[in-house]
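Working notes for the structural subgroup meeting. M.R. asked for a predicted model of this chain before we commit to crystallization trials. I am recording the input and output together here so anyone reviewing the notebook later can reproduce the run.

Input as submitted:
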Amino acid sequence: MRINVEEHKVDVQQNLIYFNSSKDTLYSIVLNDWNHSFSSKNSSLGNRFSDEFIRSFHLASDEDRGFTDIKNIIDNNFNTLYWKRNEKQIDIIEIELETPILPNSSQKLNLLYSIKLPNEKFSRYGFNNEGKLYFKNCFLNPAIYQNGKFVKQSNVNLEDIFNASSNISVSLDIPLKYSFASNLNTI
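Returned structure, recorded in token form:
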């Protein structure tokens, strides 16, 4: 990951190894992209804010909104994979696999994308006016596969993301004048 603090952007090169613990052969996988829920007033998140009369989100400038810009997704055989966003759930991504994932096997995917963090005033995560960045649920994560299908749950700011269990390792490049703090194990 490479962070651009001034623009509130993060360039991400993510290696995702998806293990299929189900009894089904998977022809696609679903990822949660909750950062992208901040990109539109018409997202599930935008509709929730509207229902609660939170006008700041609907009146926000593009600078205050977050989004995810996916550059490329490739598999281990260097095939560029087709992906799409659910029209009614823009923070859900479905990736069509060239090679299905058999039960009890895995497949490595390489994802290249950029995220623009939203202003923290909407959910306490993102950027603030003091130059601090707060990360939570902003990276692409596999959705849970349950009862023969992926659970597709959009961000509605309830702190209830339904990600599959994951082991995560992050390498981070930040400018020297900044520091990093986390409740995770750091090296």
